[in-house]
């Protein structure tokens, strides 16, 4: 399906914000297919540009892209956007995905030595609080926020993608949405999380992550938004 830059400069800067490992690149792929417009990025990743994300090379303020990928979460950065789509993913999955990316490259996987060594506990200690503070900051400082959960998009692509397109201020083309269903994975997606033979999370890690999940859930509900999907919540 064809994609273009916006014909006229966007009046609003819309962030596509997420914690690393939460499916931002996948969301960009879906949005580009559904709208026909390129997405931009706060960063420049040559490997994504080469995979067809042509908006990657534009300055993020160029106004030629429909929304802008960012992992930033500072007040100043958030306030430089007029509105935002915030993509949230189960922290247990997002942390593993980002750990794999960090130690194995965009479509690679961390080695057993990384999981079993000191890198993993260190990573969980540093990154899990950021998983929560990222969402909390966007909820606090974002001007207009549309929250999307990675798992819900996977479960019901059509309606959640339609919601994103409408939030971006575009008319929904049902025809395009149906086509997206057929090519929803793209060619850049890490082929699922490689199954580890064991659970890398210790009971202590789980206790602190569950606490963070409750915090995010409460913040969403306080804003009359649906809470986190059931599978994030400790049983």
Automatic annotation (TrEMBL):
MF annotations from Gene Ontology: sulfotransferase activity
UniProt keyword terms in alphabetical order: Transferase
Enzyme Commission identifier(s): 2.8.2.-
Family matches, as Gene3D superfamilies: P-loop containing nucleotide triphosphate hydrolases
Residue ranges of domain Sulfotransferase in the record: 85-177
Presence of the UniProt keyword Transmembrane helix in the record: no
Coiled coil (UniProt feature): none
PANTHER family for this protein: SIALATE:O-SULFOTRANSFERASE 2, WSCD FAMILY MEMBER CG9164
Family to which this protein belongs: Belongs to the WSCD family.
Protein name: Sulfotransferase
Species assigned in the record: Notothenia coriiceps (black rockcod)
Lineage: Eukaryota, Metazoa, Chordata, Craniata, Vertebrata
